[in-house]
Design a protein that fits this description.
Helix content: 40-55%
Shape: elongated
Oligomer: single chain
Low-confidence stretches: 576-581
Strand order of the largest sheet: 2-1-5-4-3
CATH class of one domain: Alpha Beta
CATH superfamily of one domain: Reverse transcriptase/Diguanylate cyclase domain
Number of helices: 16
Strand content: 15-25%
CATH architecture of one domain: 2-Layer Sandwich
Structural class: alpha+beta
Number of strands: 17
C-alpha cells in the first residue's frame, strides 16, 4: 500500500516538474476563485431567496391578520351597540310600553349604525316592534337567535334570510340576503327577562371590507377570502363551497395563523391565513381570513434576486479567472512587492494606493490594473454613501407618509375631528390617568336638534354644512388638552380633562349657546340650529370610559326629552342606583 501511494506521489511530482510556475499559479488561483465565488454566490442566492420569500409570506400574513382584526372589531362594535341600547335606562319604559314609540327608537338606532333589521320580541317570541314594521306581530320562537338571546348575548354565523326574504327589497344581482344575527336579552330593573332585542347585519359589509383591503394592498394579484369555521367560503371566489375540510381545516383552526402552499385551478398559490379570535367582549365566530397570491408572482422577486446574485457570482468568477492569468505572469519579486504594498493599504495612516511597479510589461500592466481597481472601489464607496443617504431620505419620507396615513385613519373625514376608534383609545387613557391620580374628568354628548328635519327641509348637503359648523364651534370652544370626536351622524362627544363640575357645566352651556347664536348658511338659506348636551363627570365607580359616555348619553336623552336646546348633567349616583336596583 505504501509503495502504491509513493508511486502516485512521484507521478504528481513529475507532472509538477513539467508545468511552469505561471501555469501552476493560474490553475490554482482559477480553481480556488471558481470554488469560492461559486460557493458564496450560491449561498447568498439561497439566503436571498429564503428571506425574500419570508417577506412575502409575512406581508400576506399581515394582510390576513389585519383584515381578520377589522372583522372582529366591526362585530364587537355592533355587539356593544346592541348591548348598550338594551341596557339604556331611558328605554326601560318602552319595552312594555307603546310599540310605536319603541319602533321609533329602534329605527333611530338602525339609522345610526349598520343594521339591516332590528326588532324586539317579547318573552313569548312575538315581535312587538321592529324597524320598518317588518315581521311586527310575527312569531320568532323557532329562530335560533331568539332562543339563544333569552339566556345571553348571542352572535350567530352567516345564514340566508328566511322570514325577511319576502319582505326586503330584491337585490339588483338577485343574490339572496345573508345575515349575521346579534341577540341581546332585555331585562327590567329587577333583572327579569322581558324579551330579546335582535339585530340582523347585512353580510354585504364584509364583501366591501374585503374589496377595500384588496384595493389598499396595491397588489392586484392578492386575493382575500373569508371562510366559516366549517371551511365554507363566505366571501371570495367559489362562494358557498367547501374550500378546506378534514385534517387540513383542523390544522388551520389549531394553528390560528400561518402560511402554506396549495394548488387552486391548476395553479400553485402561496396562502396566508388568520383565524379570528374575537375582540373584547365579542367571543368571535372563528372566521378564517386567507390572503393568497400565485406562487409565480409572490416569489418572482425572490427568484429574480437569486438569479441576479448567481449572475454576479458568475461574472465575478470570470473576473477572478482573468486576474489569475495576469497574476501567473508575474515573477516572484514584483509579486512580493505588490503583496507588501497591498497589505499596507487600508491600515491606519497607511497608503490608499499601490505604488507603480516595473520589471516587465506584465507587472506594469497589473500594477496599473490594480490601481484602477482601487480607484473604482473608492468611487463605488462614494456611490454607496450617496445611495445610503438617499435611502435615509426615502425612509424619512416613508415615515412622514405613514404619519399622514395614521392621521387619516384616526380622523373623521367630514369634520376633521377624531373618529370613534381613535377617541375611545384616548379616552381610555384619560380614564386610567384620572383614576390613578385622582383627577377630575368630564364627557359631553352633543346632538343636533331636529337634524332629520334639517335634511328633509334643506337637503343632505345643508345637513353636512350644519355638522361641519357644529364641529368648528366645538373645536374653537375647548382647550388644546381636550378632545372632540364625531361618533356618527349628528352626534359628537367631547372629553374634558382636569375640570370640575361647575366649569364643565359652563363650558357645555357656552358651546350650546354659541351654536344657537351661530349663523349656518347653505347657499342663500339661513338654517336655524340648536343642540342638546348631555354631561357626565368621571366617578370612581365607573368601570371604564364606556360608563362615562353612557351616562352622558343618558343626560343627552333627558335634555332631548325635556325640550331640547339645553344641557343636562347626569349624576353618577343615579346610575349607581340603577345598577344596584
Amino acid at each position: 500500500m505504501r509503495t502504491f501511494l509513493q508511486r502516485i506521489t512521484d507521478h504528481l511530482h513529475a507532472i509538477e516538474d513539467r508545468l511552469t510556475v505561471r501555469t501552476q499559479i493560474a490553475a490554482a488561483v482559477a480553481a480556488m476563485s471558481i470554488v469560492l465565488v461559486g460557493t458564496l454566490a450560491a449561498g447568498a442566492a439561497l439566503i436571498s431567496y429564503k428571506r425574500t420569500a419570508a417577506l412575502v409570506e409575512n406581508s400576506l400574513a399581515g394582510i390576513a391578520s389585519t383584515t381578520s382584526g377589522r372583522l372582529d372589531r366591526f362585530m364587537a362594535t355592533r355587539q356593544q351597540e346592541m348591548k348598550l341600547f338594551a341596557e339604556l335606562q331611558p328605554m326601560q319604559h318602552l319595552w312594555q310600553g307603546n310599540p310605536d314609540e319603541l319602533r321609533s327608537a329602534l329605527e333611530a338606532l338602525q339609522h345610526s349604525f349598520d343594521f339591516a333589521w332590528i326588532g324586539f320580541a317579547d318573552i313569548d317570541g312575538n315581535v312587538v316592534a321592529s324597524t320598518g314594521g317588518l315581521l311586527q306581530g310575527k312569531s320568532v320562537t323557532a329562530r335560533p337567535w331568539f332562543k339563544q338571546g333569552l339566556e345571553k348575548i348571542a352572535v350567530s354565523d352567516v345564514h340566508e334570510a328566511i322570514l325577511l326574504a319576502s319582505l326586503l327589497t330584491q337585490r339588483a344581482n338577485n343574490e339572496p340576503y345573508r345575515f349575521v344575527d346579534i341577540a341581546v336579552p332585555v331585562r327590567d330593573a329587577s333583572g327579569k327577562v322581558l324579551g330579546v332585542l335582535g339585530g340582523h347585519l347585512d353580510w354585504t359589509w364584509a364583501s366591501n371590507l374585503i374589496k377595500d383591503a384588496e384595493a389598499n394592498d396595491g397588489n392586484t394579484d392578492t386575493r382575500l377570502t373569508i371562510l366559516s369555521k366549517g371551511g365554507m367560503v363566505l366571501v371570495g371566489p367559489q362562494k358557498e363551497t367547501i374550500r378546506y375540510g378534514g385534517d387540513q381545516l383542523a390544522d388551520i383552526l389549531k394553528a390560528r395563523d400561518g402560511t402554506f402552499r396549495e394548488t387552486a385551478d391548476g395553479q400553485q398559490m402561496l396562502t396566508a391565513f388568520h383565524v379570528g379570535h374575537g375582540y373584547r367582549d365579542y367571543q368571535g365566530l372563528n372566521w378564517i381570513v386567507t390572503a393568497s397570491q400565485p406562487a409565480s408572482v409572490a416569489l418572482a422577486a425572490a427568484m429574480s434576486s437569486a438569479q441576479t446574485i448567481l449572475a454576479i457570482g458568475g461574472v465575478t468568477a470570470l473576473i477572478a479567472l482573468s486576474l489569475a492569468v495576469l497574476v501567473s505572469r508575474r515573477v516572484a519579486g514584483p509579486i512580493i512587492a505588490l503583496t507588501q504594498e497591498a497589505d499596507r493599504i487600508g491600515r491606519a495612516h497607511g497608503p490608499t494606493m499601490l505604488a507603480r511597479q516595473s520589471g516587465s510589461v506584465e507587472v506594469v500592466q497589473l500594477s496599473r490594473a490594480l490601481r484602477s481597481l482601487l480607484r473604482r472601489i473608492g468611487h463605488a464607496e462614494e456611490r454607496t454613501k450617496e445611495a445610503e443617504l438617499r435611502a435615509t431620505e426615502n425612509a424619512m419620507q416613508l415615515q412622514e407618509d405613514m404619519l399622514k396615513l395614521r392621521h387619516l385613519a384616526d380622523t373623521d373625514f367630514m369634520t376633521g375631528l377624531m373618529n370613534r376608534r381613535s377617541f375611545l383609545a384616548v379616552a381610555e387613557d384619560a380614564v386610567a390617568f384620572s383614576r390613578r391620580y385622582k383627577r377630575n374628568m368630564a364627557t359631553l354628548m352633543i346632538d343636533i336638534d331636529h337634524f332629520k328635519k334639517i335634511n328633509d327641509t334643506y337637503g343632505h348637503a345643508a345637513g353636512d354644512d350644519a355638522i361641519k359648523r357644529v364641529a368648528e364651534i366645538v373645536s374653537q370652544s375647548i382647550r388644546t388638552t381636550d378632545k372632540a370626536a364625531r361618533f356618527g351622524g349628528e352626534e359628537f362627544v367631547v372629553l374634558l380633562r382636569e375640570i370640575d363640575q361647575e366649569t364643565a357645566i359652563l363650558l357645555a352651556d357656552r358651546i350650546r349657546s354659541s351654536i344657537e347664536s351661530a349663523t349656518v348658511r347653505h347657499g342663500d338659506t339661513v338654517i336655524p340650529l340648536t343642540v342638546s348636551v348631555g354631561l357626565a363627570l368621571f366617578d370612581e365607580a365607573d368601570r371604564d370610559v364606556q360608563d362615562v359616555i353612557e351616562r352622558a348619553d343618558q343626560g343627552l336623552y333627558v335634555a332631548k326629552k325635556t325640550g331640547r336646546n339645553r344641557t343636562y348633567l347626569m349624576p353618577a349616583e343615579d346610575e349607581r342606583a340603577a345598577r344596584a336596583a
